Amino acid sequence: MQGNLPPEAQEKLEELQDLQETAQQVATQKQTAESQLQESQTALDELEDIDEDTTMYREVGELLVNTDFDDAKADLEEKVDSLGVRVETLEKQEERVQEQFEELQGELQQMLGGGPAGGPGAGA
Questions:
Q1: How does residue 2 score in pLDDT terms, banded at 50, 70 and 90?
Q2: N or C end of the chain: smaller count of CB under 10 Å?
Q3: Mapping DSSP to helix (H, G, I), strand (E, B) and coil, where does residue 63 land?
Q4: How much helix, strand and coil, in percent to the nearest 5, is found in the chain?
Q5: Chain segment 40-93, per-residue pLDDT in tens
Q6: CA distance linking residue 76 with residue 85, whole number of Å
Q7: Spatial separation of the C-alpha atoms in residues 14 and 72, rounded to whole Å
């Protein structure tokens, strides 16, 4: 059926497919950022139970390097803040992509006579 589509409808269908790929990429990035945020928040919470005089190390590449409690806490707080902003940005991007997808889907349905969205091969 895809070969019988008018050129405008074919173009809209390709745009829909591109948007679907974009949506999947954004969702994956958001999942990763949320996971990193949770890990960082957990580490920051754990610092509350640690004595400030405890010897601490941070990972630098494949090495463990001695670090100061205050530096470790400041770094984790900055990372949590940064990841929080990243997650919010990705959520907004996800919403925009979804809105674009729905708008494009509606345009394609109108082009094809207002029938139900079925995609290529539907009803075959």
A1: low
A2: C
A3: strand
A4: 70, 10, 20
A5: 999 999 999 999 999 999 899 999 999 999 999 999 999 999 999 999 999 999
A6: 14
A7: 48
Residue count of the chain, please give it: 124
Residue whose token pair is 């290529």 = 120
CB 110 within 8 A of CB 7: no
Virtual torsion, Cα 93, 99, 104, 110, nearest 10 deg: 180
Between the alpha carbon of residue 29 and those of residues 16, 25, 93, 96, 101, the distances in Å are 20, 6, 11, 15, 19
Minimal CA–CA distance to 33: which of 81, 74, 77?
81
Residue position matching structure tokens 């940064």: 82
Q: Are 117 and 46 in contact (CB under 8 A)?
A: no
Report the run of H or E that residue 78 belongs to, with start and end: helix 69-111
Identify the residue whose tokens are 């640690």.
Answer: 50
Domain 7-111 bears CATH identifier 1.10.287.370: yes
Assess contact for 2 and 120: CB atoms under 8 A. Answer: yes
Average pLDDT, the chain: 88
Contact criterion met (CB below 8 Å) for 10 and 113: no
